[in-house]
Specification:
heterodimer; A: five-stranded antiparallel beta sheet; B: mainly beta; seven-stranded mixed beta sheet; 0% helix
Amino acid sequence: GENVEQHPSTLSVQEGDSAVIKCTYSDSASNYFPWYKQELGKRPQLIIDIRSNVGEKKDQRIAVTLNKTAKHFSLHITETQPEDSAVYFCAARPSISNFGNEKLTFGTGTRLTIIP
Amino acid sequence: NAGVTQTPKFRVLKTGQSMTLLCAQDMNHEYMYWYRQDPGMGLRLIHYSVGEGTTAKGEVPDGYNVSRLKKQNFLLGLESAAPSQTSVYFCASRGGKRYNEQFFGPGTRLTVL
């Protein structure tokens, strides 16, 4: 099955600086890579996702890059703000065309702290 | 729309007791999932369902059972609770126009003494 590794487990950055979180995956059949943000005591929520036919995707201050050859993808947050403090999870999923491929495999999470 | 709801929000059990967690969604989603979240372990899939009347095992299914008798509900059962099942449990659903996105419930914090 799929195995997703996420680094670092904790990350502290000064407000206004950039933050980068990296993930690697093992299953070359994976083609969907979402990122979820979980604030303290809250539920995880999707913030951005990318498919394998795209190398980069941006949404305002967040961006995700994907390197299929190396099997890794990264989350980039620019101009960080205090409200970016949260736990971020990456995930991977193979093509959903076959039964058994409907599930996401999550990384272990990165606790991001923005220092004012 | 209420989205995904979970009942109860908190529960304390003694070892050996049983309980059922209820997940309900009003988005007419086909797929539903149960995860547990433990510190440093991320979200681990317990069981999931691809439609009414179907269930399948996830990564950590031992000690849990599930049922999906109605499309909008997905029940997670613990027949004989153990301290190792102390965790936060999240339900999620997926389907509709935002087909890839999993929508999570608010979570249930379960403590087994």
